[in-house]
Amino acid sequence: MSDYYISFIPVEPSYVPDSETAQRIRGIAIDNCVQRSFETSDIILFADAGENFESISCPLCKADLQEWWGNAMDSAYSDDEGFINLIAQTPCCNRSCSLNDLVYCFPQGFYKTKLTIEPTPQQQLNIENICQSLEGISGVQWRTIHTRI
User: Fold this and answer.
1) Cβ within 8 Å of residue 104, ≥6 positions away
2) What domains does the chain contain, in order, with CATH numbers?
3) What CA–CA distance (Å, rounded) separates 114 from 31?
4) Phi and psi at residue 9, in whole multiples of 5°?
5) 87-109 tens-digit pLDDT
6) What interhelical angle do 127-138 and 19-26 show, nearest 10?
């Protein structure tokens, strides 16, 4: 049986909450979770969907970008500094676009701040309510990443 967890990351990858906001995020009530963690980083990291990954397409023209994406990720990454430049030229329509704004099926994204939960198998979570709570506390929008490994 594979592991499944849900991560919540800010839509803006470089967002890091102040200590008071971080404490409030840690205190969000999420019942019946097997595990919960909250992390912040000095560098931008990538939250992937694991086995849920299906496709990547251009948000501008909808072209499939799976073959191009790996090289674009390598170009954006530095071993010392993490992801340093998320802006890339798409090969399909030759326009600038953030790797964070590509259309990932299942959603994925870049972050410096991440709240992760592992729900129990029988648990029904209201993801929308959790995102609304996070947005109310932080003042920024959040993205949900469903990861299966």
Assistant:
1) 49, 53, 55, 56
2) 1-54+106-149 (3.30.70), 55-102 (no CATH)
3) 18
4) -130, 150
5) 999 999 999 999 999 999 999 99
6) 160
